[in-house]
Structure formats: C-alpha cells, structure tokens
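Archive entry. Fields below.
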Amino acid sequence: MLEVRGLHAGYGQVAVLRGVDLDVAKGEIVALLGANGAGKSTLNNNLCGIYGPTAGRIRFLGEDICGAATDRIVDVGLIQVPEGRRVFPNLSVQDNLELGSYRRGRKNRARNLERVYGIFPRLKERMNQLAGTLSGGEQQMLAIGRGLMADPELLILDEPSLGLSPLLVEEMFGLIQRLNQDGLSILLVEQNVVQSLAIAHRAFVLEHGVIAMSGPAAALMNDPGLKASYLGM
Amino acid sequence: MLELSILLPAILNGLTTGAIYALIALGLTLIYGVLHIINFAHGSLLMLALYGVFFLHSLFGIDPYLALPIAAAALFAVGYGLQRLIIGHASHGKDENILLVTLGLSVIIENLALYLWRSDTRTIDTPYSFEVVDFGVAFIPVPKVIAFFGALLVAALLWLLMARTDLGRAIRALAKERQGAKLVGINVEHIFAMSFGIGCACLGVAACLLLPSFYVSPQVGHAFVLVAFTVVVLGGMGSFVGALLGGLIIGVTESLGGLFLGESLGQLGIFLIFIIVLLFRPTGLLGQRA
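PREDICTED_STRUCTURE:
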C-alpha cells in the first residue's frame, strides 16, 4: 500500500536521505530500524508531508503523495503517531481524541471513541484531564488513540517505546501486535531492534540515509551483520 | 464616606464600558494566544468597523444593532484576508516582523481614514440614544445596557465555539502544538487566518454595540486599544476568562477613577493597575507561564 522509491531528502544543503526504497503491504507490520541520526525521522516527516523531499516518489494506495500537504495525507489514511507524542497539552484527553478525527468530521467519531476507550481504559478514566498532566506512558497511549481516531489505513508509529519503562515497552509491543491482528497495517519506526523484529513481518534497516538491509524479520534476526552492528554480538 | 447612590451608578456604568473593553480584548487575546501576534492594527480595525457601521446607518438607514451580522462578517473577512494575504507572508515566521507589519498596517489604515473621511468626530442619532433603564439605584442609558449584555453574550458564544467545536479545538491545539496539529491534518495557515478573522469579528460586534453611545473618528481606536492591551495583560495573555474579568475590572476602575479624580484623570487608575500587575504578577490574573 505504501511504496517509496529513490527518496532523497534533507534540510537545506544537508542531505539526510540518499535514495531510500521501502514498501509496506496491507496487513503487515513493517519495522524501520536504525540508529540515532540514520534518517528515520526525516523519512517519517517526508512521508507525512511535514517536509517535502528533494527527489523520489511516494505512492500510497495508488495515489502520488510525494510533497503533498499534511492534511491531504491524513485524508488518504496515512497517519503518523509522532516521536515525542506531540499531544495537545492544553486540551483534555477527550478533546485530543476528537481532534484525531478532525479531517473525518463526526461520521465515525462516536464509534471510534468507544473503540479507543476500549483499548485504553486508562484514557477513559482520565477523559477530562488535560493531556499535559498525563504520565509519559499515558501520553503515548493518547497519541496512538488520537491516531486511531482518524480511521488509519496505515499507522506509522515513530519510536513508540521511547522513554517508557521496560514493563510498559512490553505492553506497547503487545498492543501493536493486537492492533495489527485486528487488521491495521503498521510501519514501526524503532531503535529497539530485538522487540521490533519479534513482532514485525518484515524490516528495513536504515544506515546513513540508505537502506542497508531488508527482508523478513526472522531472517534479519539471524543476520550476522545486524547482530554485529545493533546487538553487539 | 461616599454615598452608595453615587458609587453604584459609577460601578454600573463602569461595568457597561468594561464589557466593551472585554470584547475588544477578547479579539486581541485570541489573536495573541494562537498566533503569538501582538496585533497593533487592532485599534485601526475597530475604527474601520465603526466607520462601516456609521455609514451603514447614515447612507442606508440600517440600525447599528441590525448591522451586527454584516459588521461581524465583514470584519471576519478583513481579518482572514489580512492574515492569509499580508501578515502571514510578510512575517517569514518571525514574531518581530509581524509586530512591524501590524504596526505598518495600522498607520496605513488610519491615514487612509484621515484622507477619506477627515478627522471630524461623527456620531449617529437613534431613537433610543437617550432612553434609560431604571435599575433602582441608577439610570443607565439603553445602548449601554444592550452593549453590556451583548458583549457578555458574544463572550459566551466565543467560549462555546472554543470549547465545543472542532474549529475551537483546532485553534487551541495549534496554539500549543504545531507539529501535532499538522499531523492530525489541521491546515495551519487556514486556522491561523480563522483565528485572526474571529478576533476581528469581535471588533465588528464591538463597533455595533459601541456606536449608539459613542463617536467615530480616525483616531478613535487609540483609546480602546491601549486599554484593551492593559486588559489582556491584567487578565493574562491568551486567557479568555481573564480578558472578560480584566475588561470589567478596568471598566469599573476607570469609572471610579473618574468619580474620585475627575473625568480627565479617570484612566490614571488603569495604568496604575497595569504597572502593579507587571511588577507583581506579570503573567496576569489567569495567565499561564510562557
């Protein structure tokens, strides 16, 4: 459903991505792995229209979305849950969730709200609390919940485990797997290599702005190169 | 000891003026809260609105209160256009640029008004201009009573808009978290312009409520905008309830100042409050820390 070909992007004169190819098929969890500074966030921000790439092609569900505005990309169902959560701190939990379906109007809002509260009962307990007063883990739930409110075709999760306690990280990966089993396609952008490969179908490893390795997750898990660079083995 | 029969009318009068201050300050604080723009053109836009209402009355015989939807819509359009076509482009993302652009706009608008309509002070006559309502403790002119309740009603509607609609949520979200707002599909330029437009629409309403008991001249904005800035600082930058409360407090202060110090020194109290707030509570009564 997502098809990235020869993507070049950067900031001003600094080239960060130098010809990235990547794709996600319907129903998959695809992990995008890489160290800090490999270009994961840049790729993400170009997929979602925050920045425009300098060259290359991005197609989503058959539509060309390369360089499109963020609202149009939300319209076609490509939804990002950003690194650092980016929840609206001055709005209540419920208002945050409702804004998740900003581009969808009120059509499926009540149903989606019920679904999100079903997945995260904790958010329901705190529906009237300001998002800025939530704990880090709750904010991550809220950010994912807000993403789900948009009826995503593909959900991009950018470092969802960042800053969470080991126990919560475990829960987070379990949740991602459950969402996928319910039919949601997911692009999981992570530094947490082992746990990501454990739940992903396929993975791409980004290094210095190019895809250094890709393939089925199980195969990558046993790749000596990957073990050496990311797992210290 | 002052008698209540003198004090109460002054307070009631102050509240009616204060409600108008609050309305003007609401627009200012909305624009500041979302766009972080200190809109120096606020006063001149109010002046334009007052002239608009004046001419609707003198040329077409439209009552100021009936002109309210027209004035609000027109000022909304002006505000939306200004932000989308001029301020947004000229700012290049820098706050100090915006400051200068709005200051420049105010100079242009004001001098254009001087050129077109001269500096004469103009008023309108309505059948109800000199009617009063008997509150038992005081007689208050009908236009002031309408202005008071009208301003409160608009403030309540504005609050509902901000709290209960997607537009309001988007405006508040954008004020604090731009990247997150983009990622839920909020069109930043559009919502910026909507905020500026709504802030200006408040001026359209204020003009309609104000004109039956006030006057218009090219410099009329100055008196209000200076006070409105004080109200915004007193209430807390970006705070809605603060602007409302601040407006009423300032209105009463001015009125009591006039009573005790004489009409021409009435505004002294306002600026005393302004200085005291800046010294002891720079975030204002209900403001949040930046």
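CURATOR_NOTE: The interface with chain B takes residues 48-50, 69-71, 73-75, 79-80, 82, 85-91, 95-96, 98-100, 102-103, 146, 150 of chain A (CB under 8 Å).
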